[in-house]
Amino acid sequence: MTGNNFVPGHDIRAAFFEAMSAMYRAEVPLYGDLLDIVDDVNRRALSAHPDMAAELRDRGELDRLGQERHGAIRVGTAAELSMMRRVFAVMGMHPVGYYDLSVAGVPVHSTAFRPLGLEGLNRNPFRVFTSLLRLELIDDPAFRAEAMRLLLQRTIFNERAVALVEQFEGDGGLDQQSATSFVEAVLETFRWHRQTVVDSQTYGKLHRAHRLVADVVCFKGPHINHLTPRTLDIDGAQQEMQARGINAKDVIEGPPRRSVPILLRQTSFKALEEEVRFLDSEAGVFGTHTARFGEIEQRGLALTPKGRALYDTLLDEARGEQGSQAQNYEQSLQEAFSRFPDDLDTLRTQGLGYFHYRLVNHPSTHPPDTTDLETLIATGMVEASPVIYEDFLPVSAAGVFQSNLGGTEQRPYSAAAAQAAFEHALGAKVADPFTLYKAIQASSIASVRAALEAPTEPAKL
Length: 461
Known about the structure:
Number of domains: 1
CATH topology: 2,3-Dihydroxybiphenyl 1,2-Dioxygenase, domain 1
Radius of gyration: 23 Å
Distance between the termini: 43 Å
Protein backbone atom coordinates (compact mmCIF):
# COMPACT_ATOMS: atom_id res chain seq x y z
CA MET A 1 0.00 0.00 0.00
CA THR A 2 1.05 3.58 -0.52
CA GLY A 3 0.52 6.44 1.94
CA ASN A 4 -2.94 6.88 0.42
CA ASN A 5 -3.72 3.20 0.97
CA PHE A 6 -3.70 2.71 -2.80
CA VAL A 7 -2.73 -0.71 -4.12
CA PRO A 8 0.28 -0.49 -6.48
CA GLY A 9 -0.48 -1.18 -10.11
CA HIS A 10 1.85 -4.16 -10.22
CA ASP A 11 -0.10 -5.81 -7.39
CA ILE A 12 -3.40 -5.30 -9.24
CA ARG A 13 -1.76 -6.66 -12.38
CA ALA A 14 -0.53 -9.75 -10.53
CA ALA A 15 -3.99 -10.36 -9.03
CA PHE A 16 -5.65 -9.94 -12.42
CA PHE A 17 -3.15 -12.28 -14.06
CA GLU A 18 -3.78 -14.96 -11.43
CA ALA A 19 -7.55 -14.65 -11.89
CA MET A 20 -7.24 -14.72 -15.68
CA SER A 21 -4.97 -17.76 -15.63
CA ALA A 22 -7.29 -19.69 -13.30
CA MET A 23 -10.32 -18.82 -15.46
CA TYR A 24 -8.61 -19.81 -18.69
CA ARG A 25 -7.34 -23.07 -17.21
CA ALA A 26 -10.91 -23.96 -16.24
CA GLU A 27 -12.21 -23.01 -19.68
CA VAL A 28 -9.40 -24.62 -21.71
CA PRO A 29 -7.92 -27.63 -19.87
CA LEU A 30 -5.20 -28.00 -22.52
CA TYR A 31 -3.76 -24.73 -21.23
CA GLY A 32 -3.00 -26.58 -18.00
CA ASP A 33 -1.18 -29.25 -20.01
CA LEU A 34 0.95 -26.53 -21.62
CA LEU A 35 1.87 -25.16 -18.20
CA ASP A 36 2.96 -28.64 -17.11
CA ILE A 37 5.05 -29.05 -20.27
CA VAL A 38 6.72 -25.67 -19.84
CA ASP A 39 7.46 -26.35 -16.16
CA ASP A 40 9.09 -29.68 -17.06
CA VAL A 41 11.11 -28.27 -19.96
CA ASN A 42 12.29 -25.24 -17.97
CA ARG A 43 13.31 -27.39 -15.03
CA ARG A 44 15.40 -29.60 -17.33
CA ALA A 45 16.94 -26.59 -19.05
CA LEU A 46 17.95 -24.94 -15.78
CA SER A 47 19.36 -28.21 -14.45
CA ALA A 48 21.39 -28.81 -17.61
CA HIS A 49 22.65 -25.21 -17.76
CA PRO A 50 23.49 -23.87 -14.28
CA ASP A 51 25.06 -20.81 -15.91
CA MET A 52 21.68 -19.96 -17.43
CA ALA A 53 20.03 -20.22 -14.02
CA ALA A 54 22.69 -17.96 -12.49
CA GLU A 55 22.29 -15.38 -15.26
CA LEU A 56 18.50 -15.32 -14.91
CA ARG A 57 18.89 -14.91 -11.15
CA ASP A 58 21.39 -12.06 -11.58
CA ARG A 59 19.05 -10.27 -13.98
CA GLY A 60 16.09 -10.66 -11.62
CA GLU A 61 14.24 -12.88 -14.11
CA LEU A 62 14.32 -16.28 -12.45
CA ASP A 63 11.43 -15.63 -10.08
CA ARG A 64 9.24 -14.18 -12.81
CA LEU A 65 9.72 -17.12 -15.19
CA GLY A 66 6.98 -19.31 -13.74
CA GLN A 67 4.40 -16.52 -13.77
CA GLU A 68 5.28 -15.04 -17.16
CA ARG A 69 2.36 -14.94 -19.62
CA HIS A 70 1.06 -12.96 -22.48
CA GLY A 71 -2.54 -12.97 -23.58
CA ALA A 72 -4.26 -11.80 -26.75
CA ILE A 73 -7.60 -10.16 -27.44
CA ARG A 74 -9.36 -8.54 -30.40
CA VAL A 75 -11.67 -5.53 -30.14
CA GLY A 76 -13.95 -4.07 -32.75
CA THR A 77 -14.23 -0.30 -32.27
CA ALA A 78 -12.19 2.73 -31.29
CA ALA A 79 -14.32 3.16 -28.16
CA GLU A 80 -13.55 -0.41 -27.05
CA LEU A 81 -9.83 0.10 -27.65
CA SER A 82 -9.76 3.40 -25.76
CA MET A 83 -11.55 1.92 -22.76
CA MET A 84 -9.21 -1.06 -22.83
CA ARG A 85 -6.28 1.35 -22.54
CA ARG A 86 -7.84 2.95 -19.46
CA VAL A 87 -8.49 -0.45 -17.88
CA PHE A 88 -4.92 -1.65 -18.36
CA ALA A 89 -3.56 1.64 -17.00
CA VAL A 90 -5.05 0.68 -13.61
CA MET A 91 -2.76 -2.37 -13.71
CA GLY A 92 0.37 -0.40 -14.65
CA MET A 93 0.22 -1.62 -18.26
CA HIS A 94 0.71 0.80 -21.15
CA PRO A 95 0.63 0.51 -24.97
CA VAL A 96 4.01 -0.36 -26.46
CA GLY A 97 4.66 -0.69 -30.18
CA TYR A 98 2.47 -0.57 -33.27
CA TYR A 99 1.91 -3.73 -35.31
CA ASP A 100 0.38 -3.71 -38.77
CA LEU A 101 -0.86 -7.24 -39.45
CA SER A 102 -2.41 -6.28 -42.78
CA VAL A 103 1.02 -6.93 -44.32
CA ALA A 104 0.37 -10.62 -43.58
CA GLY A 105 -3.24 -10.62 -44.74
CA VAL A 106 -4.98 -10.11 -41.39
CA PRO A 107 -7.32 -7.06 -41.16
CA VAL A 108 -6.19 -5.76 -37.77
CA HIS A 109 -3.55 -3.52 -36.28
CA SER A 110 -2.35 -3.89 -32.75
CA THR A 111 -0.35 -2.82 -29.73
CA ALA A 112 0.87 -4.62 -26.62
CA PHE A 113 -0.13 -3.44 -23.16
CA ARG A 114 2.68 -4.15 -20.70
CA PRO A 115 4.78 -2.63 -17.92
CA LEU A 116 7.29 -0.11 -19.29
CA GLY A 117 10.32 -0.52 -17.04
CA LEU A 118 12.52 -3.41 -15.99
CA GLU A 119 11.33 -3.25 -12.38
CA GLY A 120 7.68 -3.60 -13.37
CA LEU A 121 8.47 -6.39 -15.81
CA ASN A 122 10.40 -8.34 -13.21
CA ARG A 123 7.61 -7.88 -10.65
CA ASN A 124 5.00 -9.27 -13.05
CA PRO A 125 5.58 -9.34 -16.82
CA PHE A 126 1.95 -9.86 -17.87
CA ARG A 127 1.34 -8.54 -21.40
CA VAL A 128 -1.79 -8.41 -23.53
CA PHE A 129 -1.47 -8.19 -27.31
CA THR A 130 -4.53 -6.18 -28.30
CA SER A 131 -5.81 -5.94 -31.88
CA LEU A 132 -8.33 -3.53 -33.39
CA LEU A 133 -10.44 -4.75 -36.29
CA ARG A 134 -9.96 -2.74 -39.50
CA LEU A 135 -13.27 -2.91 -41.32
CA GLU A 136 -12.03 -0.33 -43.84
CA LEU A 137 -9.85 -3.06 -45.34
CA ILE A 138 -12.91 -5.19 -46.14
CA ASP A 139 -14.12 -4.53 -49.71
CA ASP A 140 -17.77 -5.52 -49.29
CA PRO A 141 -19.73 -2.46 -48.00
CA ALA A 142 -22.73 -4.56 -46.89
CA PHE A 143 -20.42 -6.80 -44.88
CA ARG A 144 -18.77 -3.78 -43.26
CA ALA A 145 -22.12 -2.25 -42.39
CA GLU A 146 -23.46 -5.47 -40.82
CA ALA A 147 -20.30 -5.93 -38.75
CA MET A 148 -20.37 -2.33 -37.50
CA ARG A 149 -24.08 -2.56 -36.65
CA LEU A 150 -23.38 -5.55 -34.41
CA LEU A 151 -20.38 -3.90 -32.76
CA LEU A 152 -22.29 -0.74 -31.92
CA GLN A 153 -24.98 -2.76 -30.13
CA ARG A 154 -22.66 -4.22 -27.51
CA THR A 155 -20.94 -2.95 -24.37
CA ILE A 156 -17.93 -5.04 -23.45
CA PHE A 157 -17.29 -3.63 -19.94
CA ASN A 158 -19.89 -3.82 -17.20
CA GLU A 159 -20.95 -0.75 -15.22
CA ARG A 160 -18.92 -1.73 -12.14
CA ALA A 161 -15.69 -1.99 -14.17
CA VAL A 162 -16.26 1.40 -15.79
CA ALA A 163 -17.07 3.03 -12.44
CA LEU A 164 -13.88 1.66 -10.86
CA VAL A 165 -11.75 2.90 -13.76
CA GLU A 166 -13.29 6.35 -13.31
CA GLN A 167 -12.65 6.11 -9.57
CA PHE A 168 -9.00 5.25 -10.22
CA GLU A 169 -8.61 8.18 -12.61
CA GLY A 170 -10.32 10.61 -10.23
CA ASP A 171 -8.63 9.55 -7.00
CA GLY A 172 -5.28 8.48 -8.39
CA GLY A 173 -5.57 4.88 -7.24
CA LEU A 174 -7.73 2.12 -5.75
CA ASP A 175 -7.80 0.81 -2.18
CA GLN A 176 -7.68 -2.92 -1.51
CA GLN A 177 -11.43 -3.48 -1.55
CA SER A 178 -11.87 -1.51 -4.78
CA ALA A 179 -8.88 -3.24 -6.40
CA THR A 180 -10.37 -6.65 -5.62
CA SER A 181 -13.71 -5.56 -7.04
CA PHE A 182 -11.95 -4.17 -10.12
CA VAL A 183 -10.28 -7.51 -10.86
CA GLU A 184 -13.58 -9.37 -10.53
CA ALA A 185 -15.49 -6.88 -12.70
CA VAL A 186 -12.92 -6.62 -15.50
CA LEU A 187 -12.42 -10.38 -15.67
CA GLU A 188 -15.95 -10.73 -17.03
CA THR A 189 -14.93 -8.90 -20.22
CA PHE A 190 -12.48 -11.67 -21.10
CA ARG A 191 -14.66 -14.63 -20.18
CA TRP A 192 -15.76 -17.07 -22.89
CA HIS A 193 -19.47 -16.95 -23.67
CA ARG A 194 -20.92 -19.77 -25.73
CA GLN A 195 -24.01 -17.69 -26.50
CA THR A 196 -23.49 -15.59 -29.62
CA VAL A 197 -25.19 -12.24 -30.24
CA VAL A 198 -26.34 -13.31 -33.71
CA ASP A 199 -28.51 -16.00 -35.24
CA SER A 200 -27.01 -18.91 -37.14
CA GLN A 201 -27.62 -17.37 -40.55
CA THR A 202 -25.80 -14.13 -39.69
CA TYR A 203 -22.94 -16.04 -38.09
CA GLY A 204 -22.57 -18.23 -41.15
CA LYS A 205 -22.51 -15.22 -43.47
CA LEU A 206 -19.84 -13.44 -41.43
CA HIS A 207 -17.83 -16.61 -40.88
CA ARG A 208 -17.71 -17.36 -44.60
CA ALA A 209 -16.59 -13.81 -45.32
CA HIS A 210 -13.80 -13.84 -42.71
CA ARG A 211 -13.39 -16.04 -39.64
CA LEU A 212 -11.51 -13.41 -37.67
CA VAL A 213 -14.22 -10.80 -38.24
CA ALA A 214 -16.84 -13.32 -37.09
CA ASP A 215 -14.82 -13.99 -33.96
CA VAL A 216 -14.73 -10.28 -33.10
CA VAL A 217 -18.30 -9.24 -33.85
CA CYS A 218 -20.46 -12.28 -33.08
CA PHE A 219 -19.80 -12.46 -29.33
CA LYS A 220 -20.48 -10.35 -26.25
CA GLY A 221 -16.86 -9.33 -25.85
CA PRO A 222 -13.18 -9.99 -26.53
CA HIS A 223 -12.76 -13.40 -24.92
CA ILE A 224 -9.10 -14.10 -24.23
CA ASN A 225 -8.02 -16.37 -27.07
CA HIS A 226 -4.77 -17.61 -25.56
CA LEU A 227 -2.43 -17.28 -22.59
CA THR A 228 1.21 -17.96 -23.37
CA PRO A 229 3.84 -19.20 -20.88
CA ARG A 230 7.55 -18.62 -21.52
CA THR A 231 9.88 -21.56 -22.05
CA LEU A 232 13.66 -21.67 -22.07
CA ASP A 233 13.65 -24.32 -24.82
CA ILE A 234 10.85 -24.02 -27.33
CA ASP A 235 12.16 -26.86 -29.50
CA GLY A 236 12.01 -29.16 -26.50
CA ALA A 237 8.52 -27.88 -25.67
CA GLN A 238 7.37 -28.48 -29.25
CA GLN A 239 8.67 -32.06 -29.16
CA GLU A 240 6.96 -32.65 -25.81
CA MET A 241 3.65 -31.32 -27.16
CA GLN A 242 3.86 -33.72 -30.08
CA ALA A 243 4.89 -36.60 -27.81
CA ARG A 244 1.77 -36.00 -25.71
CA GLY A 245 -0.46 -36.05 -28.77
CA ILE A 246 -1.20 -32.31 -28.74
CA ASN A 247 -1.98 -30.96 -32.21
CA ALA A 248 0.91 -28.49 -32.44
CA LYS A 249 1.77 -26.16 -35.30
CA ASP A 250 4.13 -27.55 -37.91
CA VAL A 251 6.41 -24.50 -37.86
CA ILE A 252 7.87 -22.57 -34.93
CA GLU A 253 7.30 -18.91 -35.77
CA GLY A 254 10.20 -16.46 -35.60
CA PRO A 255 13.96 -16.92 -36.01
CA PRO A 256 15.56 -20.37 -36.20
CA ARG A 257 17.16 -22.18 -33.28
CA ARG A 258 20.43 -20.49 -32.32
CA SER A 259 23.11 -20.55 -29.63
CA VAL A 260 22.02 -17.04 -28.64
CA PRO A 261 18.22 -16.73 -28.89
CA ILE A 262 17.02 -13.45 -30.38
CA LEU A 263 13.64 -11.73 -30.27
CA LEU A 264 10.75 -14.19 -30.01
CA ARG A 265 9.93 -17.74 -31.10
CA GLN A 266 6.38 -19.08 -30.76
CA THR A 267 4.46 -22.27 -31.30
CA SER A 268 0.90 -23.27 -30.44
CA PHE A 269 -1.64 -26.05 -30.54
CA LYS A 270 -4.37 -25.62 -33.11
CA ALA A 271 -7.51 -23.77 -32.11
CA LEU A 272 -10.26 -25.75 -30.43
CA GLU A 273 -13.65 -26.37 -31.98
CA GLU A 274 -16.09 -25.26 -29.30
CA GLU A 275 -19.85 -25.52 -29.22
CA VAL A 276 -21.76 -22.23 -29.48
CA ARG A 277 -25.44 -21.37 -29.15
CA PHE A 278 -27.00 -18.99 -31.64
CA LEU A 279 -29.93 -16.68 -30.95
CA ASP A 280 -32.13 -19.19 -32.74
CA SER A 281 -30.83 -22.07 -30.60
CA GLU A 282 -34.32 -22.54 -29.14
CA ALA A 283 -35.13 -24.06 -32.51
CA GLY A 284 -32.33 -26.56 -31.99
CA VAL A 285 -29.73 -24.60 -33.95
CA PHE A 286 -26.28 -25.03 -32.43
CA GLY A 287 -22.87 -24.81 -34.02
CA THR A 288 -19.14 -24.67 -33.39
CA HIS A 289 -16.65 -21.82 -33.32
CA THR A 290 -12.86 -22.01 -33.66
CA ALA A 291 -10.85 -19.27 -31.97
CA ARG A 292 -9.09 -20.22 -28.74
CA PHE A 293 -5.75 -21.99 -28.74
CA GLY A 294 -2.65 -22.61 -26.65
CA GLU A 295 0.71 -21.01 -27.28
CA ILE A 296 4.26 -21.28 -25.92
CA GLU A 297 7.02 -18.73 -26.47
CA GLN A 298 10.77 -18.40 -26.01
CA ARG A 299 12.25 -14.93 -25.62
CA GLY A 300 15.78 -13.86 -26.50
CA LEU A 301 17.95 -10.81 -27.01
CA ALA A 302 16.24 -7.51 -27.85
CA LEU A 303 17.72 -6.24 -31.10
CA THR A 304 18.73 -2.67 -31.90
CA PRO A 305 17.37 -0.99 -35.06
CA LYS A 306 20.49 -2.21 -36.86
CA GLY A 307 19.95 -5.77 -35.65
CA ARG A 308 16.24 -5.66 -36.43
CA ALA A 309 16.93 -4.44 -39.98
CA LEU A 310 19.23 -7.43 -40.53
CA TYR A 311 16.64 -9.77 -39.00
CA ASP A 312 13.86 -8.44 -41.24
CA THR A 313 16.04 -8.73 -44.34
CA LEU A 314 16.97 -12.34 -43.63
CA LEU A 315 13.40 -13.29 -42.70
CA ASP A 316 12.04 -11.76 -45.93
CA GLU A 317 14.66 -13.67 -47.86
CA ALA A 318 13.71 -16.99 -46.25
CA ARG A 319 9.97 -16.43 -46.65
CA GLY A 320 10.37 -15.21 -50.19
CA GLU A 321 12.21 -18.35 -51.21
CA GLN A 322 10.05 -20.96 -49.53
CA GLY A 323 6.86 -19.33 -48.24
CA SER A 324 6.18 -20.64 -44.73
CA GLN A 325 5.62 -24.36 -45.35
CA ALA A 326 7.28 -26.48 -42.73
CA GLN A 327 9.92 -28.67 -44.32
CA ASN A 328 11.62 -26.37 -46.82
CA TYR A 329 10.98 -23.21 -44.84
CA GLU A 330 12.97 -24.34 -41.81
CA GLN A 331 15.95 -25.19 -44.01
CA SER A 332 15.68 -21.89 -45.84
CA LEU A 333 15.44 -20.04 -42.52
CA GLN A 334 18.57 -21.71 -41.16
CA GLU A 335 20.51 -20.88 -44.33
CA ALA A 336 19.42 -17.25 -44.34
CA PHE A 337 20.22 -16.71 -40.65
CA SER A 338 23.67 -18.23 -40.96
CA ARG A 339 24.66 -14.62 -41.75
CA PHE A 340 23.34 -13.36 -38.39
CA PRO A 341 26.11 -13.42 -35.74
CA ASP A 342 25.45 -16.03 -33.06
CA ASP A 343 27.71 -15.15 -30.14
CA LEU A 344 27.18 -12.51 -27.49
CA ASP A 345 30.45 -10.63 -27.98
CA THR A 346 29.91 -10.13 -31.71
CA LEU A 347 26.26 -9.18 -31.25
CA ARG A 348 27.31 -6.61 -28.67
CA THR A 349 30.37 -5.14 -30.38
CA GLN A 350 28.56 -4.87 -33.72
CA GLY A 351 25.67 -3.03 -32.05
CA LEU A 352 23.07 -5.62 -33.03
CA GLY A 353 21.48 -6.08 -29.61
CA TYR A 354 20.85 -4.33 -26.29
CA PHE A 355 22.80 -5.38 -23.21
CA HIS A 356 22.60 -4.91 -19.47
CA TYR A 357 25.96 -4.12 -17.87
CA ARG A 358 26.80 -5.11 -14.31
CA LEU A 359 29.83 -4.50 -12.12
CA VAL A 360 30.96 -7.89 -10.82
CA ASN A 361 34.45 -7.22 -9.51
CA HIS A 362 34.73 -3.86 -7.79
CA PRO A 363 38.29 -2.61 -7.21
CA SER A 364 39.09 -2.76 -3.52
CA THR A 365 41.17 0.41 -3.23
CA HIS A 366 40.66 2.90 -6.07
CA PRO A 367 38.68 3.19 -9.31
CA PRO A 368 40.31 2.01 -12.54
CA ASP A 369 41.90 4.58 -14.84
CA THR A 370 39.21 4.07 -17.47
CA THR A 371 35.45 3.77 -17.69
CA ASP A 372 35.64 2.28 -21.17
CA LEU A 373 33.22 -0.63 -21.18
CA GLU A 374 35.26 -2.85 -23.48
CA THR A 375 38.32 -2.50 -21.26
CA LEU A 376 36.29 -3.18 -18.14
CA ILE A 377 34.71 -6.25 -19.74
CA ALA A 378 38.10 -7.53 -20.93
CA THR A 379 39.52 -7.27 -17.42
CA GLY A 380 36.55 -9.14 -15.95
CA MET A 381 35.36 -6.16 -13.95
CA VAL A 382 32.06 -5.80 -15.85
CA GLU A 383 29.72 -8.39 -17.32
CA ALA A 384 27.26 -7.81 -20.17
CA SER A 385 24.08 -9.89 -20.39
CA PRO A 386 21.26 -9.73 -22.95
CA VAL A 387 18.32 -7.39 -22.46
CA ILE A 388 15.35 -9.68 -23.05
CA TYR A 389 12.88 -8.86 -25.80
CA GLU A 390 9.54 -8.05 -24.16
CA ASP A 391 7.45 -7.38 -27.27
CA PHE A 392 6.04 -9.12 -30.34
CA LEU A 393 6.72 -9.77 -34.04
CA PRO A 394 3.96 -8.96 -36.55
CA VAL A 395 4.84 -11.76 -38.96
CA SER A 396 4.93 -14.31 -36.14
CA ALA A 397 1.66 -13.05 -34.67
CA ALA A 398 0.03 -13.23 -38.09
CA GLY A 399 1.42 -16.73 -38.59
CA VAL A 400 -0.19 -17.91 -35.36
CA PHE A 401 -3.43 -16.12 -36.30
CA GLN A 402 -3.46 -17.80 -39.71
CA SER A 403 -2.80 -21.29 -38.41
CA ASN A 404 -5.65 -20.93 -35.95
CA LEU A 405 -8.08 -19.57 -38.53
CA GLY A 406 -7.75 -22.77 -40.51
CA GLY A 407 -4.96 -21.51 -42.76
CA THR A 408 -7.43 -20.22 -45.32
CA GLU A 409 -8.03 -16.66 -44.17
CA GLN A 410 -5.14 -14.80 -45.78
CA ARG A 411 -6.28 -11.89 -47.93
CA PRO A 412 -4.24 -9.89 -50.43
CA TYR A 413 -4.31 -6.64 -48.44
CA SER A 414 -1.65 -4.21 -49.51
CA ALA A 415 0.56 -2.94 -46.70
CA ALA A 416 -1.60 -0.36 -44.97
CA ALA A 417 0.06 0.76 -41.76
CA ALA A 418 -2.02 3.43 -40.06
CA GLN A 419 -0.33 4.19 -36.75
CA ALA A 420 -1.76 7.72 -36.47
CA ALA A 421 -5.31 6.40 -36.92
CA PHE A 422 -4.66 3.63 -34.40
CA GLU A 423 -3.32 6.07 -31.81
CA HIS A 424 -6.31 8.34 -32.39
CA ALA A 425 -8.61 5.39 -31.64
CA LEU A 426 -6.46 4.42 -28.66
CA GLY A 427 -6.50 7.94 -27.24
CA ALA A 428 -2.74 7.92 -26.65
CA LYS A 429 0.62 7.48 -28.33
CA VAL A 430 2.22 4.04 -28.22
CA ALA A 431 5.66 3.84 -26.63
CA ASP A 432 8.60 3.04 -28.90
CA PRO A 433 10.12 -0.32 -27.86
CA PHE A 434 13.62 0.65 -29.04
CA THR A 435 13.55 3.70 -26.77
CA LEU A 436 12.61 1.53 -23.78
CA TYR A 437 15.41 -1.00 -24.43
CA LYS A 438 17.94 1.76 -25.01
CA ALA A 439 16.97 3.30 -21.66
CA ILE A 440 17.49 -0.04 -19.86
CA GLN A 441 20.95 -0.36 -21.39
CA ALA A 442 21.88 3.28 -20.66
CA SER A 443 20.69 2.98 -17.06
CA SER A 444 22.86 -0.08 -16.49
CA ILE A 445 25.92 1.70 -17.91
CA ALA A 446 25.29 4.70 -15.69
CA SER A 447 24.99 2.42 -12.65
CA VAL A 448 28.31 0.74 -13.44
CA ARG A 449 30.11 4.07 -13.80
CA ALA A 450 28.53 5.46 -10.64
CA ALA A 451 29.63 2.37 -8.69
CA LEU A 452 33.18 2.69 -10.04
CA GLU A 453 33.39 6.31 -8.95
CA ALA A 454 32.08 5.58 -5.45
CA PRO A 455 34.82 5.26 -2.82
CA THR A 456 35.28 1.87 -1.26
CA GLU A 457 36.96 0.90 2.00
CA PRO A 458 39.78 -1.63 1.98
CA ALA A 459 38.79 -5.04 3.24
CA LYS A 460 39.43 -5.49 6.97
CA LEU A 461 41.72 -8.32 7.95
